[in-house]
Amino acid sequence: MTSISEQLPEIFNVAKYFWESNLVQERQEAIAFYHQDETYTYAQVSSFIRRTARLLSDLGLDRENRIAILLPDSPEFVFAFWGAIWMGYVPVPINSACSQNEIDYILQDSRAKVLLTNQEWEDKLTLFQSCFLRHVLLTDGENAFASLLNQQTDKPLPSAAATSRDEAAFWLYTSGSTGLPKGVVHVHQSMVVCAEQYAKATLNLCKDDITYSVAKIPFAYGLGNTLYMPLAVGAATVLSDASNAFDIINDIHCYRPTVFFGIPSVYANLLAIQDISPLEVSSLRLCVSAAEQLPKSIWHNWLVTHNQEICEGIGTTEFLHIFLSNRIGDCKPGTSGRPVPGYDVQIIDEKGFPCPPGEIGDLRVKGDSLMLGYWNRLQKTREAIDGYTMRTGDKYVCDPDGYFRFMGRKDELFKVNGQWILPLEIEDILHQHSQILEVAVVPESNQGEQLTQIIAYVSLQPGQVPSSQLENSIRKFATQKLPHFQVPKVVKFVEKLPRTVTDKIHRQKLV
Predict the structure, then answer these.
(1) Complete DSSP assignment for 106-170
(2) pLDDT tens by residue, 289-300
């Protein structure tokens, strides 16, 4: 069977593919984006993208020059991302949750010639440490980006560059939780593959949908949820910079999305404040979760509270989006679901042979959306991928029904008294304690005796106060539910768990 990528022509520009499609032509007057109190139709966004392409072209850039975008999710972000690809330039979204040092590193590492940002960030950054940066465009202040775009209306708009389906279209940087961020290079065909195989074939997105994503555009999950998957079906999406559960609730009540792309910590927080700020979900037909494992207790609480299943899935920046997913009416809580069409997913042992059902092994994924490679990281690329196949570094087990269950990252598993400890199994039990909001289990060594013990870092539900009595209650609860060797030796209370810029629990900061 011919793959999606093989069906695409060799000369292929993904911005042209999406924005000159028959579907977009039919949807010219339909809303493409909601942002604050404004709406943007497909016709308006298409015009702004072409004007952005013209503006970037006037800067004297060459094909494949990188365009760094450091902004909250906003119309300017959308225009710049697609406008860059239209001209054959390479957009590099930067997560605004990154530290200043990480941003400086990404600007230097990517060799970006242009940075689109706002005045607040320009004041923070030592921009000219990058010897490659030539232009800084601001979305506010004098000569703001929008004003420059409006000056483009009388100029002829450029045709899309004749790029190849196999050349770099955009980069995404990994979260860098175990070192400096890595630049993941994706080609023009990657977004088409994910849109067809996940948005359409798995989620059944349609033109009547309004999507709302908690994950932001620089995060691979958010890029799909917001930028190209709704576009692929002619749907609308909400551009929001909501930073807490209360703002997310306000957005959902205001925009009435039909599809909610969440992450486990947000689902937990929404449930935690249900009594004081109830969420009204009548507009939602689909709830999705990704980024990290969703505890079964949260899945069941959401179902009881809102009569909605959560379709959990998993993907990686290297594969751009989700390759394992649950489906509505066919969810198995506590699992990442089954393979998305077009992906070959296996669990293998250390020698590379398939593991039987029930045996823990390494996750190996094959699919057409796999990255071209890591920028300037040849050894890391060679270690990670073989053709269209990649070992993700995750430990998984597959049950007899074909559902894949995440057991942890390779570097998160540890031994206590000769027994393998799987932190997620312990965390899933502790999540059932009524006073716990979030928990992370890590090893801690007694330096004097070189013994490893299990430590549980716990953040509490609103209104709960840490105490020795509560610690004893949690340990007693664990003793009743877990084998003795899995019971945490110590419970440490924290106001909140540390997280990466992509909102995953940052376990390395707890060890």
Answers:
(1) HHHHHT-SEEEE-HHHHHHS-GGG-SS--EEEESSSTT-HHHHHHTTTTSPPPPPP--BTTSEEE
(2) 998 889 999 999
